[in-house]
Amino acid sequence: MGVSSRTEDYLEEIFSFRLEGRPATVTALAERLGVAKATVVAAVRRLVNLDLVAHEPYGALHLTEEGKREGLRIHRRHALLAGLFSDMLGMTPENASEVACAMEHSLNDDTERRLFALADFLYRARRAGWPWAFELQHALSHPCRLPRPLPVLPLGEPGVVTRVATGDEDRERLHHLGLYPGADVVLIEERDGNLRLRIHPQAPPGPGRAPGEEMILSREDGARVWVCIPDPGDPSAPCAQCPLKRPESRERPRGRSPGELPGEGRDHKS
């Protein structure tokens, strides 16, 4: 329909007034959005031209049928995102709403449906008391330091592998080398497009390779490995509750069937 994100904000607020059972007027919109009346008048004119709003002269604003559908769509996406951010990620309601406002305009229908399915599943898991659901919520509420690709790890500075971002086959190969979540790694040298590393995993990284042994890794493979830099003196460093620092999280991961969840299936200890 070609509606800008700012115009959608006005549409969402008019829809909110409708939910509250209050008349939406230019004055009320200006007060709620913290803008001048002239700015609201210009936005309302665009909505009227798009046949999304009907405006009584000097009176209330009414959503057309198409306006109701569009208003519901953007309101629903905002509620979905804000709920996920506050309930699951532990963000403050104010911060969650602010981030949701920035993201809600970019969602498409398929992404919205998938996020709703995810949110519904997580809420049901928590209500059912599944232990992994509370572990997930705890981990999401205690974020660790943001990771970086292995090739930009400062030379000689230890890092902790957080994830291996690649397909299943390459991921298993890199896991086999000892590069899996929880493994400690030190970048010793970069030369001729290759990385020389030292890995200190808690579990044996693979046949014929001892813990602490040095290895050569291509820069291409290294870019698939993300690491964080633990620094107890840095408040942004991983906290004590970081799952990557728990002993049970440092086992070498085994394969998981598609759709299988932690605590289910043959590899529930991984």
Write structural notes for this entry:
- The protein has three domains: 5-63, Orthogonal Bundle (Arc Repressor Mutant, subunit A), CATH 1.10.10; 71-127, Diphtheria Toxin Repressor, domain 2 (Orthogonal Bundle), CATH 1.10.60.10; 148-250, Roll (SH3 type barrels).
- With 270 residues, it is of the alpha+beta class.
- It starts with a helix and ends in a 42-residue tail after the last strand.
- The protein is elongated.
- Helix 1 (5-20) crosses helix 4 (65-88), helix 2 (26-33) packs across helix 3 and helix 4 packs across helix 5 (93-103).
- Strands 3-8-4-5-6-7 form a six-stranded antiparallel beta sheet. A two-stranded antiparallel sheet has the order 1-2.
- It is built from nine helices and eight strands.
In terms of topology, how is this protein built?
Elements: H1 5-20, H2 26-33, H3 37-49, E1 53-55, E2 61-63, H4 65-88, H5 93-103, H6 109-127, H7 131-141, E3 148-149, E4 158-164, H8 168-176, E5 184-191, E6 194-200, E7 214-218, H9 219-222, E8 225-228
Antiparallel strand pairs: 1-2, 3-8, 4-5, 4-8, 5-6, 6-7
Helix pairs in contact: 1-4, 2-3, 4-5, 4-6
Main features:
six-stranded antiparallel β-sheet, Diphtheria Toxin Repressor, domain 2, 270 residues, SH3 type barrels, elongated, alpha+beta, disordered C terminus, two-stranded antiparallel ribbon, 43% helix, 9 helices, Arc Repressor Mutant, subunit A
Number of domains: 3
Order of strands side by side in the largest beta sheet?
3-8-4-5-6-7
Uncertain regions spanning at least 5 consecutive residues: 246-270
Distance between the termini: 48 Å
Major β-sheet annotation = 6 strands, antiparallel
